[in-house]
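Need tokens for this chain, all 146 residues.
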Amino acid sequence: MVELLFEDIFTLTKIDPDGKKFDKVSRIVAHSEQFDMDLQLDVNTEVYPMHVGEKFTLVLAPTLSLDGTPDSGYFSQAASRKSLADKFEYVMHGKLYKISEEGSGPRVKVEMYASYGGLLMMLKGDPSNAVNFELDQRLFLLIRKV
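Here are the structure tokens for all 146 residues:
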């Protein structure tokens, strides 16, 4: 069984809060229900349209293999094996490039930054949600609307 690094349901609160910068990409802002996390994520909205008020499940995983086999870095469409991606509508592969903390004491928040081929993600919240993450870790981001 694949070990998920993070999973929660988010509600989309804003799209392009700083204005639309690209034709096919929008930056979404969302907040999670269970872990009280804030998300900013660039999404190819031409391929996967999203709207304010929608709820979606977001998963971060180190591999798509259902048995937890580490990702080889290569993808073959010829392989007809089932994968974690089969359960989701939008999938990106990238790298965690920055983990930082802001604030102090009980108000400390962790910020995790990942790049998915130039589409960026920032996930911010309680540091306990970041214990499974490592700098330069390869990540799959998977989304499914609820």
